[in-house]
Fold:
Amino acid sequence: MLPQLPLWTVYPVLIIGLFISFFYIFVLLQDKKEYPRSKNYFPEVAFVIPARNVQQYITKCVEGIINQVYKSKIYIVVVNDASTDNTVEIVKQLIKKYNSKLREIILINRPKSIDKKAAAVNTGLKYVLNKLKLKIVATVDADTFIDRYILLEALGQFENDKNIAAVISPLLPYNKKSFLEKMQYVEYVMSMFFRKLLGKVNALCFTPAFAIFRTKFLREAGLYNENTWTEDFDMALKVKSHYYNISQIDSKAEFIAPETWKKLKVERVRWAHGTFQALFKDYSYMMSPKYGTVGTFFLPVTVLLGTLLIIVALLFVIYGAIAGLTWIAHNFVLGWKPILEFNISFFDISVLFSDPRFILGVVAILISVFFLVFAQKYTKRKINLLYYFLFFIPYAWFLAYTNLEGLIRYIFKLKMSWGNMHSKDEKKN
Structure:
């Protein structure tokens, strides 16, 4: 039989988790000025859309930009990354339909893809920087659909704070029917809440599927890194490494979430691999007080220690399950038969309630419910309580596994795959 894990191995996991939670509770109590929508700042803006085999989504994505409540000109630069479906034909139809004095769609064709989104995005950014020479540029994935007031709200951040180099919006799944999609909805609502908290202490460090940049920053710091598996996280770290801030607005962007466990696994393993690459190789120097809360807490504690924490917790669960099964098998060999007994004494209950592991576990559950209540208040999004608890089991353990696999693949330099996040129907075209 496997030996039982000593208590000293369990307590650090619980205590570190509580420490991270109390930090966010402290941040929750902090005040931060909210900037209004732009009233006087209406520069011409370009949106860069990397597009590869996205015939199902490109129209909705482009029309979300066309319909922005914005009185200045908007350029939409669609970078076709060697699509083999009808993406190009659809974009050409959209050009004929929508091109006007205030809205212009530009199609750029890349004849050969290197299977990295960052390369396609950079092609569009170079066009904006060199040809259009604008002050503001946005990047948006082709399967992402933005709110019609998102541009006004984002430019309000730039107008009121010159140190903001990038603005992001909350991402929420557009598809929320299956169990997996509902779990992702819970995950992204909670992420939306915690990112809002990070913004309060200038520790927000994300530039996801939709982000708006000052082109001044891109000229100074460079474009997306094409040699990483998480180019958006890499870009966010680049922003913070140059001592600029990232702001999150309230207007949302919706995206097509992975529809199967297999697709989600490929995506999250890639994210984990890219995160470890950034922390251990590309941006390890940023884990320093020199970079404020990002360097002293977010990167070393929330990202690195927090990720390793959930991996260790997963290993504990796996070890406990194997130990339990071997114990049952061992006793069956000796002739033991299970007997259901419900003879629980007051002494047994007293011992349970006085166990520090039980107390810490109850505190963790209460803090979790506390965050749920405030997340719904701050994000104005409802989360089903049942789905919230199901999020922790089994979904959170699945995410822990993808982090473990990503770490193993990074350490041993195993082959990685970008994966196809779109539907099976699109794959056939």
